[in-house]
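Quick illustration for those who missed Monday's session on complexes.
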Amino acid sequence: MKMRICCTTCPNECELDVEIDENKKILSATGNKCPRGLAFAEKEVVDPVRVLASTVKVDNGAHNALLPVRTKEAIPLRYHFEVMHQLEQMEVSAPIQMGDVILPNVCDTGVDVIASRNIR
Ligand code: SF4
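Prediction with iron/sulfur cluster bound:
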């Protein structure tokens, strides 16, 4: 099977054309300007990860009572739906500082959801 993958490791955003077998092993890859692109493609084929960004309700404070949040690092896409569901159920209290942990170790990934801004 052939796939096109955009490497997001650096601002070059190389587009790789990869061919994979039935076990998701990469048989060939072109388009990457450095070896990190191949490493990215191998991970992307097996278990793609992305940073998740969302909002949670604030029970007091300014800014329309919504706090922007994001995962501190990329987490597997397969967990995004569950994390979004958990964030929808949450309500936090101001004051909140940018970088405060809002939800620790989401889905046992070792990655925290953190505040993306200050709320007074
Ligand atoms: S392949 Fe290398 S140069 Fe291209 S986007 Fe990925 S890390 Fe950057």
